[in-house]
C-alpha cells in the first residue's frame, strides 16, 4: 500500500490576522469548501497511515470542520513557530515509525502528484529530509534554499533573516517536506528561536541534519500556483481565480 509507513502532519493552528476575520485561516472557503479540506483532498491519493492536524486558534471549530475519523488532532496553545508546531505531534506519533510528510493547511492548490513525487523521491534516495522547492525568477517572500558550491542543499534561510546576497537566490522553500520521523524530532530538539521573528523554525532542522552528515534532498517545481499560501484576502481572491481555471482545464 502506497501510504504504509507515511504519516502526514498538517499545520493549521494560525489565526490569519491579515484575513481580517474571526474565522480560522484554514476554514476560509475556496470553491465553497474550507482551505483545509482541499489539503486533505490532496493527501487522499497518498493514503497515509496517519494524518495529524495541528490546531490552535479556535481549535474546536477546526476539528468540527474535518470529517470524523479522517485525522487526529494536537493543539499548539502558543503559536511559537513551525518547528514548535511540529514538536506538538511527537507524542501522538510516538508509536509510529516511518516518514513524516509535513505541509500547511493554507495551501489549497498543492497537487497530489507533487506530493507523491516528493515522497517517492525521498524514499528512493533514502534521505533524512526531502523538501519541495520552487525555482522562480519572480520575487517571493519565501525562505531561500541555500546550496553548497557542489549544489547540495545546505540550509534554508527565512526571508526576514536573509542577507541582501541571500535574497538574490532564486530557489524558494515551499514549506512542504518529507522527513524520516525519528531524525525529524531529534533535529527539532536542537532548534532555538534566535532569529528575526523569535520563533522556532522547522526550516532550521535542515542545517542540523546536514551537520549530522545525513542527506538532505530537494525536488523542484516551477509551478508557483501550487505553493500559494493564503495569508490575506488578496491571496484568497488569486487562489479562487486559479482554482476556477483548473476546474475549467483539468
TrEMBL record:
Every copy of the MobA-like NTP transferase domain together lies at 8-130
The record, for Pfam families, names: NTP_transf_3
Q: What is its EC number?
A: 2.3.1.157, 2.7.7.23
Q: Which GO terms describe its molecular function?
A: glucosamine-1-phosphate N-acetyltransferase activity; UDP-N-acetylglucosamine diphosphorylase activity
UniProt keyword Transferase, yes or no: yes
Query: Coiled-coil segments, which residues?
Result: none
Cite the InterPro entries for this sequence: GlmU-like (IPR050065), MobA-like_NTP_Trfase (IPR025877), Nucleotide-diphossugar_trans (IPR029044)
What EC class is this?
transferase
Q: Which UniProt keywords apply?
A: Acyltransferase, Nucleotidyltransferase, Transferase
Q: Which reaction does it catalyse?
A: N-acetyl-alpha-D-glucosamine 1-phosphate + UTP + H(+) = UDP-N-acetyl-alpha-D-glucosamine + diphosphate; alpha-D-glucosamine 1-phosphate + acetyl-CoA = N-acetyl-alpha-D-glucosamine 1-phosphate + CoA + H(+)
Family label: In the N-terminal section; belongs to the N-acetylglucosamine-1-phosphate uridyltransferase family.
Tell me the function of this protein: Catalyzes the last two sequential reactions in the de novo biosynthetic pathway for UDP-N-acetylglucosamine (UDP-GlcNAc). The C-terminal domain catalyzes the transfer of acetyl group from acetyl coenzyme A to glucosamine-1-phosphate (GlcN-1-P) to produce N-acetylglucosamine-1-phosphate (GlcNAc-1-P), which is converted into UDP-GlcNAc by the transfer of uridine 5-monophosphate (from uridine 5-triphosphate), a reaction catalyzed by the N-terminal domain.
Identify this protein by name: Nucleotidyl transferase
What high-level taxonomic lineage is stated for the organism?
Bacteria, Pseudomonadati, Nitrospinota/Tectimicrobiota group, Nitrospinota, Nitrospinia
Amino acid at each position: 500500500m502506497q501510504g504504509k509507513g507515511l504519516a502526514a502532519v498538517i499545520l493549521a493552528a494560525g489565526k490569519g490576522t491579515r484575513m481580517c476575520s474571526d474565522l480560522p485561516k484554514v476554514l476560509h472557503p475556496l470553491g465553497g469548501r474550507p482551505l483545509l479540506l482541499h489539503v486533505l483532498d490532496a493527501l487522499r491519493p497518498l493514503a497515509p497511515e496517519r494524518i495529524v492536524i495541528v490546531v490552535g486558534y479556535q481549535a474546536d471549530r477546526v476539528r468540527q470542520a474535518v470529517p470524523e475519523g479522517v485525522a487526529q488532532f494536537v493543539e499548539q496553545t502558543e503559536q511559537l513557530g513551525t518547528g514548535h508546531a511540529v514538536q506538538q505531534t511527537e507524542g501522538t506519533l510516538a508509536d509510529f515509525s516511518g516518514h513524516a510528510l509535513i505541509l500547511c493547511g493554507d495551501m489549497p492548490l498543492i497537487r497530489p502528484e507533487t506530493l507523491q513525487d516528493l515522497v517517492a523521491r525521498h524514499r528512493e534516495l533514502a534521505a533524512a529530509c526531502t523538501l519541495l522547492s520552487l525555482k522562480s525568477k519572480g520575487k517571493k517572500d519565501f525562505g531561500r534554499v541555500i546550496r553548497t558550491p557542489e549544489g547540495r542543499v545546505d540550509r534554508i534561510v527565512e526571508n526576514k533573516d536573509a542577507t541582501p546576497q541571500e535574497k538574490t537566490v532564486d530557489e524558494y522553500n515551499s514549506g512542504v517536506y518529507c522527513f524520516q520521523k525519528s531524525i525529524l524530532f531529534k533535529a527539532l530538539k536542537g532548534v532555538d528561536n534566535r532569529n528575526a521573528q523569535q520563533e522556532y523554525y522547522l526550516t532550521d532542522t535542515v542545517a542540523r541534519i546536514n551537520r549530522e552528515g545525513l542527506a538532505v534532498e530537494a525536488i523542484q517545481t516551477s509551478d508557483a500556483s501550487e505553493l500559494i499560501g493564503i495569508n490575506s484576502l488578496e491571496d484568497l481572491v488569486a487562489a479562487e481565480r486559479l482554482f476556477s481555471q483548473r476546474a475549467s482545464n483539468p
